[in-house]
Amino acid sequence: xxxxxxxxxxxxxxxxxxxxxxxxxxxxxxxxxxxxxxxxxxxxxxxxxxxxxxxxxxxxxxxxxxxxxxxxxxxxxxxxxxxxxxxxxxxxxxxxxxxxxxxxxxxxxxxxxxxxxxxxxxxxxxxxxxxxxxxxxxxxxxxxxxxxxxxxxxxxxxxxxxxxxxxxxxxxxxxxxxxxxxxxxxxxxxxxxxxxxxxxxxxxxxxxxxxxxxxxxxxxxxxxxxxxxxxxxxxxxxxxxxxxxxxxxxxxxxxxxxxxxxxxxxxxxxxxxxxxxxxxxxxxxxxxxxxxxxxxxxxxxxxxxxxxxxxxxxxxxxxxxxxxxxxxxxxxxxxxxxxxxxxxxxxxxxxxxxxxxxxxxxxxxxxxxxxxxxxxxxxxxxxxxxxxxxxxxxxxxxxxxxxxxxxxxxxxxxxxxxxxxxxxxxxxxxxxxxxxxxxxxxxxxxxxxxxxxxxxxxxxxxxxxxxxxxxxxxxxxxxxxxxxxxxxxxxxxxxxxxxxxxxxxxxxxxxxxxx
Amino acid sequence: xxxxxxxxxxxxxxxxxxxxxxxxxxxxxxxxxxxxxxxxxxxxxxxxxxxxxxxxxxxxxxxxxxxxxxxxxxxxxxxxxxxxxxxxxxxxxxxxxxxxxxxxxxxxxxxxxxxxxxxxxxxxxxxxxxxxxxxxxxxxxxxxxxxxxxxxxxxxxxxxxxxxxxxxxxxxxxxxxxxxxxxxxxxxxxxxxxxxxxxxxxxxxxxxxxxxxxxxxxxxxxxxxxxxxxxxxxxxxxxxxxxxxxxxxxxxxxxxxxxxxxxxxxxxxxxxxxxxxxxxxxxxxxxxxxxxxxxxxxxxxxxxxxxxxxxxxxxxxxxxxxxxxxxxxxxxxxxxxxxxxxxxxxxxxxxxxxxxxxxxxxxxxxxxxxxxxxxxxxxxxxxxxxxxxxxxxxxxxxxxxxxxxxxxxxxxxxxxxxxxxxxxxxxxxxxxxxxxxxxxxxxxxxxxxxxxxxxxxxxxxxxxxxxxxxxxxxxxxxxxxxxxxxxxxxxxxxxxxxxxxxxxxxxxxxxxxxx
Lengths: 515, 515
Prior knowledge:
- The structure is a homodimer.
- The first copy, chain A, is α/β, with parallel strands linked by helices.
- The first copy, chain A, is 39% helix and 19% strand.
- Chain A has 2 domains: 6-156 and 357-514, nicotinate phosphoribosyltransferase (Alpha-Beta Barrel); 214-352, TIM Barrel (Alpha-Beta Barrel), CATH 3.20.20.70.
- In chain A, α2 packs antiparallel against α6, α4 (75-82) runs antiparallel to α5 and α7 (182-193) crosses α8.
């Protein structure tokens, strides 16, 4: 049995087969090095079924850039391709093409403008524009979509969970239900989106985050299997981690055994001048149990201990639990706000799989070709007007209203500058004659979103740290209208075209239809 | 910006943080090397919403065994752990424990019995039993679940798609919507489950499969952007791949442009003594369009060309399309059976994400502890009887009826042998007094499913090739009752306990309840 060669599988051949057969076709037709521009964007916000996203969070760029820098065709890759045969038994790839792949097909000729990670992003806005040799840009399509679709998807889910948790700490717990090695990209995206910690040790350490966790039911069960009990398991844990004692209280019976035993151990810790951290609830009615737990902990003199909630949590369940606590807690003489302020959210499966919407529909479309040094817009006609990407080079501008809230993203042609204008026309992306005019007085800020990250293969962008990316996410979500952040049926954020881009697009569509 | 260290993130620290804090607790209490047994199983078949699985396909073992062999604590890993501090600012992990991790915490002491890959598997049957030092077996939990949950999930979805496609060729196309590096495990699992090819070049090559693909809309659009047309794009493709010419016909207009242009090119190929492969449909009403396409291709003298269908296909959509073809084709003078027999299925997003059910609920529970050389069953009590795992060492037996069909999986204690018995009691796993008796005459075969794969860290199992795994899957699904394979609301396959295991479990539960 030959060992699976992960290096090959994760290298330059991490792409779809047709990218290579098409690349050879471009090579054979002498157009493989013709500079082309592709735009990356997603068409729809995640729709999780009974709830929907009104925005997404950008993530994944740093890892994509690293991949572009590190992967290139090796002899082994070429050998694999040389072995591919068609129906006739003849080789599919010619030696001249393989030679070109080996020697010249690198991402060194790529230029790229991108929206930075952590930013709020919207449907149908270019997130990345890639310019480079046609065949190279084509081979890049699959890894680009693979990397960015997934991290954006998970960062978005994480941001929703963080919103639902009202900013309380969130820990990503999903590794055992994650998608094999995809767990690491998922953990990073969760941290970008809003999770404060991950239980994933390797990914956390590699990102410079402290990994976090509590303990499992299995610890209590192990003690029980050895003839001891829950209390002795808790004591052993408190002895070893006196300043980090967070106890999972639902292995035997939450209210009758777990919490009373935790309180006993907390009292012993207090006696030894240690401050207990709190408890975790992982089953049952988490709203009811957290109220009862708070009541018992308060009565015992531990009002500052935290209560970690976990068990199939997503934004909707969290929102429901917190709402119920708000309504019900005072009936049990527990102050709802104080209780909410001691909650910590453990989100696992439903975060790491983006439960309800497991894949973002990011696409990568050619929008310009370079002819003798000039970028000539190209367009793809579709029967559905919403599926026609805007042609040519572009910039995306975020418009902030007088309150400082983001009110629209405006896509312009690449040569427009929106600074110092007296009024701004925001054209509906599809419907003729529908537009909105903003006067200078209505606008507090206009900000370009696409920045140059690669120029002819050189990274010309200082990668922000993950903390900076996380701050960026927080700043951007803070500047979103609450309606856009609503978990269910959010308000549709405006994505508009500039008059110039609208005119260019209509002109090109009309010309093709006439032909 | 420090580069993300994938080696660390994918190494031995690819686990949950609490596994390490618990391991230190076991170390501190002197029980870290106490031999313990953990059983791995899943509790529920995937429920995709409007349809449900009645069986799963086992996958992922080979990669898990490779990981166990290859990963161990390195100095870098220990350094990461040494840097972890608690709330007090003091280090969380002691030097003695870290020293033990570095020197002694390897998977070399693990023994494992497993159900081979490719086998049909059922809910609540042990798929793997792991025996080894308590702390090591605990650290293994997360990667084991991560690897096996995901591959089983995708292999199962793939098997359902293959069933719905009535055994016609299936190509896995999902890479761009897959979960970053998880794409490779997903491609492997899809191939095990029933897909015949994958578009993922790296994973296919590493597995010794020929990657497959057609071409993208972008190829036609590129030609159009350069002032040429669909026909010239098709001609260029046919020139380069005369014996592998499969054309995507829906870029412009399927019936008015794509298929007529494809037929033109096919005629030119025929003239040059090449046999065209066929067409791909990626949008629109795939049932209607495939009938019209067949009609046009037949009329043009290409009745043997294939028709590849793609676009958000899953088992239910495929089943619907094929059913509609069966009902409708003859109205257009197309023979339904011949048409179905020329279909090829391209399954992407919904295969690689297991659409509707993105995570298998596999768990890993302690079921025995070794006391002075003897395995003593241990049990975990739960308020829900279905959540109490069967205690002790075990074997799983598949019982085949007189027709040679699998009729039940029977879980016995590890020391039972079911060969040469005159009758067999199959006890309901939860309900008292509910059982089924099978006489020798009712049974054609009794087959043990768990085989020894690792003994004290040595692999004692010859890993089957992926072709052998695929054959195994086919043999097993062929021996399943059609009711169990039904896509919607399948018949519940019997998973039973032997009388001896039932008695042991009841006795242990009663004893604990008395305490």
